[in-house]
Design a protein that fits this description.
Low-confidence stretches: 1-29, 33-40, 46-84
CATH topology: Metallo-beta-lactamase, Chain A
CATH architecture: 4-Layer Sandwich
Largest sheet: 8 strands, mixed
Shape: globular
Number of domains: 1
Strand content: 15-25%
CATH superfamily: Ribonuclease Z/Hydroxyacylglutathione hydrolase-like
CATH class: Alpha Beta
Mean pLDDT: 80
Order of helices and strands: HEEHEEEEEHEHHEHEEEEEHEHEHE
Number of strands: 17
Length: about 325
């Protein structure tokens, strides 16, 4: 019995040591948490949209009106996902446009800022709405201001179940019940119940899932379970994140492994609002070591971390806010 107790003690100390060793990796990814429904920093707004440097490849920030006029006709929707890793096409296709519809900052006059995130991806086989912000009225207001209608959307991808990413879902689905909604399989029923009641086709995601040529939903990671969107563009894979709760470096690494290629650009919430300058510095180093060239931090990234990322990436930095339109 005494020998068994000694071995048990050794095993417990070993496990404790492993937990201590693995904790810093998690902290460097997401430095603390922000409640999905409280403690939101005040949104900011502005009347000018920052231009993307012409020296950074061919990506450019253009006016929302001109970008929206080129939205291709919607393709038929499939209500099933492919639950296995699917490589992105080896050859780049047509330009891909990403338009920010919901964010803490408004860069386009006539739009509204609010805590949350949503963006529209066009130029692919299907038009994709990634996340839906916190307030359906604000989402619809911004969509109208930017020349987008719910009828333009074929697919909604929810990164995770927090209300600042799912709050506008039911308002979109009520006006377009042809939409297919992809969401992490472990999400609560409450986050998708109204969309289901409105008639949307629901596809739970528990593994890498293809939702059309050149676009993948990544396998959910962490808690809350969170997926991201990998989009194939002429400049390389672009990763779009909602909050990056599992860690932005970890999510970029997982996406790179999934498509066997380095991620060219990463956009969205990075969840660095609680990080120290040193922690943000290590995260920036991690992104650069993975080969990320362009960075568009939004939503829960935090002003201090955003400024640090801007200084580090220089011309590769993308100014994010409602009304920003990036063409890859």
């Amino acid at each position: 019995m005494r020998r068994r107790a000694v071995w048990l003690s050794i095993l417990l100390r070993t496990l404790a040591g492993l937990l201590i060793l693995t904790t810093p990796a998690m902290v460097t990814g997401a430095c603390g948490s922000v409640a999905p429904e409280s403690g939101f920093p005040a949104p900011t707004s502005g009347s000018t949209m920052a231009a993307s440097p012409s020296t950074v490849s061919t990506a450019a920030v253009t006016s929302a009106a001109s970008a929206m006029s080129t939205i291709p006709a919607a393709a038929p929707i499939s209500t099933t996902g492919t639950m296995e890793p699917v490589a992105l096409p080896p050859e780049p296709g047509a330009p891909v446009t990403i338009t920010v519809l919901y964010d803490n900052t408004a860069l386009r006059s006539g739009t509204r800022a609010d805590w949350g995130f949503s963006c529209l991806v066009t130029g692919l086989e299907r038009t994709i709405l990634f996340d839906t912000g916190k307030d359906g009225d604000i989402l619809l207001f911004n969509m109208e201001a930017l020349g987008v209608g719910p009828e333009d959307v074929d697919v909604v991808v929810l990164s995770h179940e927090h209300s600042d990413h799912t709050g506008g879902l039911d308002r979109i689905v009520v006006q377009n019940d042809r939409i297919t909604v992809y969401y992490p399989a472990s999400s609560s029923a409450a986050s998708i119940s109204r969309a289901q009641a409105a008639g949307a086709a629901l596809v739970p995601v528990d593994a890498p899932t293809s939702i059309g040529e050149g676009v993948l939903v990544t396998s959910p990671l962490g808690a809350p379970a969170e997926s991201a969107l990998v989009v194939h563009t002429p400049e390389g894979p672009v990763l779009i994140t909602g909050c990056a709760h599992p860690g932005i470096v970890e999510m970029v690494r997982a996406a790179s492994d999934l498509v066997s290629a380095r991620v060219f650009a990463v956009l969205g919430g990075f969840h660095l609002v609680s990080c120290s300058g040193d922690q943000v510095g290590r995260i920036i180093e991690g992104l650069k070591e993975l080969g990320v060239e362009r960075c568009g931090p939004a939503h829960c990234t935090g002003e201090a971390a955003t400024a640090q990322i801007k200084a580090a990436f220089g011309e590769g930095f993308i100014e994010m806010g409602v009304g920003t339109v990036i063409v890859f």
